[in-house]
């Protein structure tokens, strides 16, 4: 179960907005994360807390295929991103690093910044606590849930290397 405060964004939030390219020379993820969303929300870093949730409209994570984008979100404590749709490469990069993502248009339309959302990923149930509304989303297949629970693909493979093949 994931429960957190909403940070709401619009359409086409690209990877250069999530983490501007001018900082990609930083190699420490905690330093890199200090610049997350700064070009769209100067106060994001001050306001984000562990367990928070990003809610966005269409095409979240579009742009370049940098894996830094989901890494800095996770580094800042974002537990889940809910959007109407995701760019395919961001979707895959998020799963690869263990950041939960979910498509749920109804939740996006109903939610505002600072709302509290509770999500059961295994059942695909999303509830906006402030508005007392519940939505259905597609739950992840078990193998993707396991990748996310293990903190990403590399961790999942290391843990299961003796069981694979």
What is the radius of gyration? 15 Å
Assembly category:
single chain
Principal-axes geometry comes out as globular
β-strand percent reads 15-25%
> Largest sheet, described in full?
7 strands, mixed
Please give the share of residues in helix.
25-40%
The low-confidence parts are none
| Strand order of the biggest β-sheet | 4-3-2-1-5-6-7
Q: State the secondary-structure class.
A: alpha/beta
Summed up, the helix count is 8
Please provide the count of β strands. Answer: 7
Distance between the termini: 31 Å
Please tell me the overall pLDDT: 94
- The helix/strand order is EHHHEHEHEHEEEHH
In words, what does this structure look like?
- With 165 residues, the protein is an alpha/beta fold.
- It is built from eight helices and seven strands, in the order E-H-H-H-E-H-E-H-E-H-E-E-E-H-H.
- The chain has a seven-stranded mixed beta sheet.
- Helix 4 links the parallel strand 2 and strand 3.
- The relative contact order is 0.17.
- The mean pLDDT is 94.
Provide a compact summary of the structure.
This protein is of the alpha/beta class and 165 residues long. 32% of the residues lie in helices and 20% in strands.
What is the element layout, followed by pairings?
Elements: E1 2-9, H1 15-18, H2 29-33, H3 44-47, E2 53-56, H4 68-75, E3 80-83, H5 88-97, E4 100-103, H6 105-110, E5 116-120, E6 125-128, E7 133-136, H7 142-149, H8 153-160
Parallel strand pairs: 1-2, 2-3, 3-4
Antiparallel strand pairs: 1-5, 5-6, 6-7
């Amino acid at each position: 179960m994931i429960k957190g405060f909403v940070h709401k964004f619009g359409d086409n939030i690209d990877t250069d907005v999530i983490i501007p390219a001018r900082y990609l020379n930083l190699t420490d993820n905690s330093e890199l994360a200090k610049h997350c969303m700064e070009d769209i929300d100067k106060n994001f870093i001050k306001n984000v807390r562990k367990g928070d949730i990003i809610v966005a409209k269409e095409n979240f994570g579009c742009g370049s295929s940098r894996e830094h984008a989901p890494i800095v979100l996770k580094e800042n404590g974002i537990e889940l991103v809910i959007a109407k749709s995701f760019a395919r490469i961001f979707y895959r990069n998020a799963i690869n690093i263990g950041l939960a993502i979910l498509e749920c248009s109804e939740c996006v339309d109903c939610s505002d910044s600072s709302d509290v959302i509770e999500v059961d990923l295994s059942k695909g149930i999303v509830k906006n606590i402030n508005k007392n509304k519940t939505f259905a989303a597609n739950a992840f297949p078990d193998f993707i849930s396991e990748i996310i629970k293990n903190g990403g693909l590399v961790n999942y493979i290391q843990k299961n290397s003796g069981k694979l093949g």
